[in-house]
Write a structure and sequence with these properties.
167 residues; Rossmann fold; four-stranded parallel β-sheet; globular
């Protein structure tokens, strides 16, 4: 995870310095967005205006793989391999999720009503900023439903407009 975050930060630094920016991540992407935000704050004193996370509990509440995943005949070997690769990337941060740095940006969580994140509300523990959470109809990939995609895009655009006006 540290290598992924370092590479993202190096690519983003020339673009975000002196600019307002936000991150959105879905599932594993939420962890990448979160740890990138922490890294940027700790190392460069840069922080997103807003962090939008989707379909995953915060790292300090991370659970395991759902019980029926391994026995689910609909899950292909490729899906299982991807989950194992994600867990491999996360292994170095699972035991060290209590950073001394706390974000101050706003955080908004999105999840599907049929998804299984343990505790989306616990994301508010990682920031001193405002927190909001939305449960939309669907499973883990609820955001692929056009009405959910539209809601998320409109919510993010409105949030960023409000942030820009406040700056």
């Amino acid at each position: 995870m540290h290598q992924v975050v370092d590479e993202i930060a190096c690519a983003l630094l020339p673009i975000i310095q002196g600019e307002n920016f936000a991150f959105f991540g879905h599932s594993m992407g939420s962890y990448i967005a979160f740890f990138t935000a922490l890294h940027l704050k700790e190392k460069y004193n840069l922080e997103p205006e807003h962090l939008f996370v989707s379909s995953v509990s915060p790292p300090h509440e991370m659970g395991g793989i759902r019980d029926d995943f391994v026995g689910d005949e609909e899950q292909s070997q490729e899906s299982f391999t991807k989950v194992l690769a994600d867990l491999h990337i996360l292994k170095d941060v699972i035991c060290n999720t209590h950073s001394k740095t706390r974000l101050s940006c706003d955080i908004t969580c999105f999840s599907g009503s049929e998804d299984i994140p343990a505790d989306m509300e616990a994301w508010k523990d990682v920031t001193s900023g405002n927190f909001d959470s939305f449960v939309l109809p669907g499973h883990h990939f609820y955001l692929l439903e056009p009405s959910n995609t539209s809601f998320i895009k409109k919510y993010i655009a409105k949030s960023l407009e409000i942030s820009a006006l406040a700056s």
